[in-house]
Specification:
Chain B: Its EC number is 2.4.2.9. The complex is a heterodimer of chains A (311) and B (192). Chain A is of the alpha/beta class. Chain A has 11 helices and 9 strands. Chain A has 2 domains: 141 residues, Aspartate/ornithine carbamoyltransferase (Rossmann fold); 151 residues, Rossmann fold (3-Layer(aba) Sandwich). Chain A is globular and about 55 Å long. The two termini of chain A are 13 Å apart. Chain B is of the alpha/beta class. Chain B has a single domain, classed as 3-Layer(aba) Sandwich (Rossmann fold), CATH 3.40.50. Chain B has 3 helices and 8 strands. The longest helix of chain B has 18 residues. Classes of the chains: A alpha/beta (311), B alpha/beta (192).
Amino acid sequence: MKHLLTTDGLAEDAATAILDTADELKRTLLGREVKKLPTLRGRTVITMFYENSTRTRVSFEIAGKWMSADVVNVSAGGSSVGKGESLRDTALTLAAAGADCVIVRHPASGAAHRLAGWLSEGGTSVVNAGDGTHEHPTQALLDAATLRERLGALKDRRIAIVGDVLHSRVARSNVHLLATLGAEVVLVAPPTLLPVGVGSWPVTVSHDLDAELPALDAVMMLRVQAERMHGGFFPSAREYSIAYGLNEARLGLLPEGAVVLHPGPMLRGMEIGSAVADAPQSAITEQVRNGVHVRMAVLYHLLAGDGGERG
Amino acid sequence: MAPRPRGATEPAAERELLSAGDVARTIARMAHQVIEKTALGSGTATPPVLLGIPTRGIPLATRLGARISEFSGVDVPTGALDVTLYRDDLRRKPTRPLEQTQLPTGIDDRVVVLVDDVLFSGRTIRAALDALRDHGRPRVVQLAVLVDRGHRELPIRADYVGKNVPTSRSEEVSVLLSDVDDRDAVLLGERR
């Protein structure tokens, strides 16, 4: 594997290999005094974030450091981007400075793909850490890791993705990955928050959350992305919350053992009730914990070997 | 030459070095040696922790541990230690999948016996020593191998050796264990 840009087209065995590696990394680091592995010593990883982020950037940085890579963080605010440098020139600069891997988050969908095209020749790997409303593959992988931990194999599991699907790169990445892993995916959202062309996705669509809940193995709540909304997508926050928010009463409709996920940052009281976020069914803090192991696994698969496929 | 999983297939034109019966007798003898060297019979010694190195070191450690318990009456904790993340040749080969790491107990101030099937260059054991250091500080680390085939590239030796086999570098030693393979045997053949 050279880049991780999307989960669309990520083969099942490649996805499973990353998830298995993440599981082993988690197990091997459990209860250790020294949470550091020498595996990526001498490799340089640069995170390049053109959008705000707490958990993803920190998670990648910790993942790189626990694998002993040198991690350098670049944010758009403090860099030459503010002086008008293009994405391409910034990327080529970072590659020339010796980056083995560039982890990029960008508000434009497709930015990571363009970057990979520019950097492939020099041998620099690119990881998409979120591009516009397109994809966020490591989030989908960490969600899958968390679900596997709670539910076992995902084959034939029924998983709902609820809320602002239109603006959600997390939803897109999850739809592809979960379908690849054999799960049944239901999108639950108001018609205004579903993208055009959703009919061609490997999913079923519903507008009635209460009707779906009793048959689910997991429910993934999405944040309402007000920063990407220019126009009226629903009448009011209160009305959205009543129709699509996961409150305590709805939590009671889920079967026993069902899991609640949220990619964060969550808006308590909007798409998810505060008590629900802290309920035993909620795996939200585990998602963050698994995020580090999954990103370690991604870096391992991109950077540890000689770049060839295993014979 | 295409890389092949360690010991996964039998080499061509192989010669049997140890039969199934020999393997069982060898493990029993090694168990007695571990008991003697760690003073396990004395009643006061803490039992050693056996850590098998994947893949075939794990069933080997389990069998050795069972024998030690049988002969000494003391339960011996056994586990697995994957060394993939500590190898010095990662960048020379395609990405390897990780194997299982399972420490049955803390290893601080314990006697740890690393168990592997074949001792060759010593690089796997070097990686294992580095891995151990990140898990704790054992009082003593020892090494048990079913076959020592020579050609060390590092100053490493085994404390318990099932069988010393002089080999040439062009040869390949394959350990078969019924837990992973169809039978117990140690074979010597030409590298393909």
